[in-house]
Each structure stands twice: as C-alpha cells, then as structure tokens.
Amino acid sequence: MYDEDDDQSIQCATYTHARRHPMVLGSIGGWSPPFQLTMTQLGVLLASVLPRAIETASIIAPGLGLEVSGQECDLCEVHPGEADGLTWTEYAARYGSFDMEAEPDRVFAPAGDSWNSFHERVKRTLERVARDHEGQTVVAVCHAGVIMASMRVLLGIPQAGTGARLRPTNTGLTEWEHDRSLDRWTLHSFNDAGHLLGLAGRTAA
Which residues lie closer than 8 Å to 84 by C-beta, 6 or more apart? Predict the structure, then answer.
C-alpha cells in the first residue's frame, strides 16, 4: 500500500470537527485510529483555532495517544475579516451578497479571504505540514471547507469544474499521503465515517 521508503513520506489525516452535541462527543472519546493511520508514526495532532475544532481534538486525543500539539489559524474556514460576528442579515446590509466562486478574487469582507486566497492558504499549509513533519502521521482537526479545498488544490480540479459538490460530514476522516521523493500527494480516503457505525444505537440507549 505504501512506498518502501516510508521515511520520505508523510500522512496527513484531516478530521472534520464533531457537531457540538455532548452525547455524540462523549462517544467519540473512545475513537481509535483506523488501520491506515497505524502504518506510520502517529506524531502530531493539530487543530484550527475555532472552538469546535479544539473541542473535538481534545476528545479524540486519548484515542490517538497524543496531546494537541498546536492550534493553527491556517486550518480555519474562509477568514471572514471584518464580517466576523455579523449575522447574515447584517452582512448583506453592509457588504451585499455575491458568489465567491464567480468572483474568486473578491474578499468576503475587508481583511478576510477571497476564494483564491483561501485555496492558496490551504495549499501552502499542506505543503508546510508535509515539510515540517516528514515521516510522521499528522492528524489535523479542521473544517469541511479546508477539506474540500484540499481536494481541489491537490487533485487539480478546475475553478469552475462541473458544478458537482463535495460535502464532508462531521467527524469524517480524509487521508492524504505526501511522497517527498516524487513530490506527489496520494488520496487514501475521503470522508471515512466508519468509526460512527452503531453510534446512534449506543447514544439512544
């Protein structure tokens, strides 16, 4: 499944934060990494700086046998800039509405991300993580937008594409591997939620 020269590769498992529901989160606390994640050294657990990601990372940490190594703003969704904290009604009154994909260089709000700058940030972050943690498995608790952006930038999906959508679910696991010798990314799984099988029955009991 993996190249023999494992010390030149990194696995980056992006894990979508959980819904903020205490019964579900409590059950996730016993989550253990899928088989693929045991193939290389489990070394780093990262989270975005948003509370829902930090909370999820702290809950899955015991199952991984890791502490949260860092909180990174670069793992956040589109930065809203000066629109942070506004309701959608307030946002529309102040900035109007627009399609970020149709106007990819227009920022969401002053000091915020545009569609293009967000994707550039995700690509830059993945490259940095691959460089800084070569030979390790990095688990990054982030957000659906970051995972969707990783698919677009690493698979080279065109800007407009076909209009088809990717919708990762809460706690879905997406696993990328980077081979430094070939400078190549390999997608091993997308939105794997097998660890939730049977969860509904347990939480309802």
Answer: none
Enumerate residues 6+ apart whose C-beta is below 8 A from 3: 9, 179, 181
What Cα–Cα distance (Å) separates residue 99 from each residue in 84, 114, 149, 160, 198?
18, 11, 16, 12, 39
Strand-pair partners of 139: 13, 45
Quote the pTM value. 0.78
d(C-alpha 13, C-alpha 136), whole Å = 11
10-32 pLDDT per residue, tens: 455 555 554 433 223 333 333 44
Rounded to 5°, angle at Cα 6 from 120 and 48: 35
What is the phi-psi region of residue 169: left when phi exceeds 0, alpha when psi lies from -120 to 50, beta otherwise? beta
The dihedral through the CA atoms of 122, 93, 101, 13 has a sign that is positive
Q: List the Cα angle 42/21/190 in 5-degree steps.
A: 45
